Amino acid sequence: MVDILHQVGIKSPKAEVYSALTSVEGLSGWWASNTSGKGNDVGGVLQFRFGPGGIDMKVVDLVSDKRVLWEVVDGPEEWIGTHVEFELEQADEYANVMFRHLGWKEPVPFMHHCSTKWAVFLVSLKQLVETGTGAPDPRDIKIDSWN
Length: 147
Prior knowledge:
alpha+beta
């Protein structure tokens, strides 16, 4: 198995980042404008809709201001059964986000695309928390022809 790993520092208290990772308003402000569901309840399901399709994530674990863990229950075949994790640590005035998309079966070309897109969206999360305006789908940076 292979994983996607990223880290980003956000000039903010962890609580603000945690809110952007667990509230529909926050998630729609940095990842997918068309977001619905329950992100702040373990067992809840979040629905993210993008132009070419959608992804449903089950909330597996929440530790307030420290950790968010989702399981992909519907979406691209390569994503089903994988886990998306955000761990938060405060370092002075920065909330450090350790991001992991865990459990890919193999590093297929789509994984390379997704790794870059996760980086784009983590920068969008940083922008949302620091400035109040992110760049969620469909306003995100496009990186290739099928995006």
